[in-house]
Amino acid sequence: MSTSEMPPASAPGRSTDTATHRRTSGGAWVGWVVFAAVIAITMGAFEAIEGLVAIFKDQYYLVPSTGLVVSVDYTVWGWVHLIIGVVSILAGIALLQGRSWGRIVVIVLAGVSALVNLGFLSAYPIWATLIIAFDVIVIYALTVHWKDVTA
Predict the structure, then answer these.
(1) Which of 41, 55, 75, 131 could form a Cys-Cys staple with 92, CB 3.0–4.6 A?
(2) In the chain, which stretches have pLDDT less than 70?
(3) Cα dihedral sign, 20-22-28-34
(4) pLDDT at 2
(5) CA-closest candidate to residue 37, choices 138, 140, 145
(6) CB-based burial, 44-69: b 16+ in 10 Å, e otherwise
(7) Is 104 helix (H, G, I), strand (E, B) or coil?
């Protein structure tokens, strides 16, 4: 259909309500926010698993706790990971519900998680690298088009 054949906006059966046809500039980025929320929940689950392993089976790690960047017991590392994981899961759920504070909390937690896993890198390099990659993706997805998406 060429532009000359298009019916006018006031044609019968055609809605003149522009609000239903309006598209925001950040429409695609809403999907990124949902993606970031799901990744934050996944990241939180990984953090919690890592924390539980460190709490209940600290012999699992081949590197002694003195070989870590921050030389503390694996039980302490486990609790840190578990707390970050549980809060990340809750913040990811809040972000899925459209809560604006969830976005800020997820960004802060992703940054903290990346730093904590950087310190834990020598104990479990593949797992920590995976979580750091998730953290970077989450931070990117939530900050690149901040003004285009409300939550």
Answers:
(1) 41
(2) 1-29, 65, 146-151
(3) negative
(4) 52
(5) 138
(6) bebbbebbebbbeebeebeeebeebe
(7) helix
Q: How many angstroms separate the Cα of 59 from the Cα of each of 20, 53, 82, 124, 129?
A: 59, 9, 17, 12, 21
CA atoms within a 13 Å half-sphere pointing along the CA-CB vector of 45: 7
Residue given tokens 């998406």 in the structure block: 149
pLDDT recorded at residue 27: 66
What is the predicted pLDDT for the residue at 88? 93
Does the residue 54 lie in any domain? yes
Give the Cβ contact number of residue 73 at 10 Å. Answer: 13
Q: Is 16 among the domain residues?
A: no
Q: Is the pTM of this model over 0.70?
A: yes
Per DSSP, 66 falls in state G
What residues make up the domain containing 135? 38-143
- The reply to whether 6 falls in a domain is no
What is the H or E stretch that residue 86 is in?
A: helix 74-96
